[in-house]
Amino acid sequence: MKRLLIIIAVLALPTLFNGVSHADASPIPIQSGVLLTFDDHAIEQWAQQIPLFKKYKAKATFFVDRFHTLSPEKIQQLHALNKAGHAIGCHGVAHRKAVDTIQKVGTEEYLKIEITPAVQAMTEAGLTPTSFAYPSSQRNVESDTLLTNTFNHLRGGTGLPKDTQIVTLDKIFYTPDQLANTPCLIGTGIDYAGSEKRPDYIEQIKTALDRAKAQGEIVVFYAHGISENGPGHHITPKALEAILAHAQAIRLPTLSYDDLPTK
Question: What is the pTM of this model?
Answer without folding.
Answer: 0.89
